[in-house]
Fold:
Amino acid sequence: MTSFDPASLLVPRTQSADEGPIIRMAQKSRDLRAKGIDVVSMTVGEPDFDTPENIQDAATAAMKAGFTHYAPVLGVPELRAALSKKLKTENGLDYGVNEICLANGAKQAIANALLSIIDHGDEVIMLAPFWVSYEITVRFCGGTPVVLPASVDENYKVPARRIAEAITPKTKLLILNSPSNPTGAVWTRAELEEIATLVKAHPRMMVLSDEIYEYIMFGDRMVSIGSLAGMRERTITVNGFSKGFAMTGWRLGYAAAVEPIAKAMGRMQGTLSAGANQFVQRAAIAALEGPRDEVERMRLRYQQRRDMVLKGLRAIPGVKIGDIPATFYAFPDVSELLGKKAGNHVIDSTDTLCDWLLDEHAVAVVPGGAFGAPGSIRLSFACSEAEIEKALVRIRTALGSLV
Ligand SMILES: Cc1ncc(COP(=O)(O)O)c(C=O)c1O
Structure:
């Protein structure tokens, strides 16, 4: 009998679908904790707050009322109507109920969108630093990521002029994430207008606008690029309940786009999963239409933490950081520290730096390579103030010891 190796059947996409560093650092933190080490983890992008009670109650009531069956593939009409209203009143976006497709998280909404419009040979412009999953999913669809980096001195926003230079006849999509994970950058109306002008000048180019951090902002409200003149047809707006409503584990997100695209996204949703969880969708109506004081309370806590983190990081020599107008992430540039030594150990990359911080100083942060910015590290401050305080002391001590 010939020997059979099941692993030899695996296709290359299983290799590229790897969120690597975040999961690796989070897992390593858990392993060290299991050994009794007091690790502070600033790795995962997940609110430390529980879902507001009115939303939990609405889910329980919906379950008891029998909403435990398959939902329509695009989502329950009542939620799509509530979302259509939300998009209009809060974002100036005009999408009807048939132009909204619910999904099991914004992550799946993004996958549905990319699977619908990206094929082999299509180029997708990605503004680095970017959320890890975009690049993986674009490759999954056979698309070619065209990565344009921006520095901390540019507030991590690629100027329109550089975007213009990267556009080719093969460009099909630009992925925009304002407010941004991992940098917290927010694009102004003027900056979005410039991007919109470039997109509209192209015969077949769209924008995927991921707005999932819209409720975690500390300054002016954000502008949705799909609300700008001529951009309704050119934009797929993605959003979800995970971050602002602290509903990560519920898995509910959505995408809004003109009907042919919404329909195609529905076909992807229906094929890969089915309609998103029915009682979760009912609870989401309560999230949208109920009181928002918990959302506001969480936002204010993130703001206090943002201030703590900024103050702490700015006091560390070799760490460069601008403002953080939104999100619960800090993304300092630490490239000045690379090449320094901890004893005999050369810190030659942010991967090495993050491993060393965790192994020797019991603080877990994520290296920037996976976000398309290898000179930076990401700290998530969706953790308690006490943990942040502890982490900052450890980071300051650690980085201060490098020579
Ligand atoms: C920018 C961005 N988009 C989308 C998601 C996915 O959110 P969801 O939990 O709704 O899938 C995340 C989660 O970290 C994110 O940071």
Summary: The first strand starts at residue 40 and ends at 41. The chain has two domains: 6-50+294-400, 55-289. Residues 293-314 form the longest helix (22 residues). Residues 45, 105-107, 131, 177, 181, 210, 212, 240, 242, 248, 253 surround pyridoxal-5'-phosphate (CB under 6 Å).
